[in-house]
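re: ur question from earlier - yeah i can do the single chain one, its not a big deal. heres the input i used so u can compare w yours
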Amino acid sequence: MVVSSKLQRHMAEGGWIRAMFEVGLALKQQHGERNVFDLSLGNPVMEPPEQFHHELRRWAGQVTPGMHRYMPNLGYAETRAAVAAQLAAETGLPFTINQVAMSCGAAGGLNVVLKTLLNEGDEVIIFAPYFAEYIYYIDNHGGVSKVVSCDEGFNPDLHALEAAITPRTKAVLINSPNNPSGAIYEPGLLHNLGALLRRKEAGFGTGIYLIGDEVYRKLVFDGLESPHVFPFHPRSIAVTSHSKDLALPGERIGYIAVHPECTGLAELMDGFAFCTRTLGFVNAPALMQYVVRTLQNVTIDVKEYERKRDFLHSHLTAMGYSVVKPQGAFYMFPKSPIADDVAFIKELQERLVLTVPGRGFGLPGYFRISYCVTDETIEGSLTGFRQVARKFGLG
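and the output i got, formated as tokens:
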């Protein structure tokens, strides 16, 4: 075999989203793209806001010597300062450029953070359902994933978390609003989570980092807010990108931010710079660093996602599906009407509706719907959902 045995195993275990992409291509070739209703990918169809296009035209039209050369691995000082100013305004903490590193999206940022923190065999705790790639990011850098359960509302079970923490626990990685459930972890929960980490740190004489994947933090509904991780634990790190809030997934631009009072801050930032370089990212895209500099308080029209959520949720629940109403992001995570979620999504595929089984997110018996798609795709999928609901006796 050319490919390593471990990679073969990972590809077989964790390729659900990619597998749905391949299935979708085949079905679209066979039936025509308009007749296939692909709800499998978190690839937003919304266009970036006009402010982005204005800044892009402005910077692309300039001929400034050196603007496309290398810069410090952590990014342009001016862009980091803009990020820090926005974080300071949102949190009341004294952020400066010394706590900010620009990254190649949140995926790049998380890999940089984990590479910096982990010794071989260190444990990182994640909560099911989780973003599927976390398992592989942790493994990339010699870490061990420990999966902890959530309650039926997809909120972390802190009793299970307490039992899972050991002297080898290096970090707890959370994602709020959550992909795939859309759940927001509220301040009271995060307060208790932070207090638990500090008790365990004191008991074991170790340091445990709270890492927040905040890529969907600005995509919240119903007047809710999704808090930063920083108020809840001094050893906290947030990683985000503008893939979702500015609808720029292909531009790979984001940042890492560390609590200003985090112990060993300077060493962490040096580690981020080194790992950004040696993991092959080198630096975040230069042009995008210029463009997003003035867009730190700009977001796409979140009401559009809220409208799509309400439409889909009302129809699915009327059909008899059990769905916890998402509070943010652009995913829905209903229960499968049958225990075998893979068999269920194959039933949907036969009706040209594409979703992803819950086992791809660490929680069998559910399935993920992405509603960051056109209205026509959502509306067209309803017939298939209804037919399968009737087949399995829902409603």
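The longest strand covers residues 169-175. not sure if urs matches, ping me
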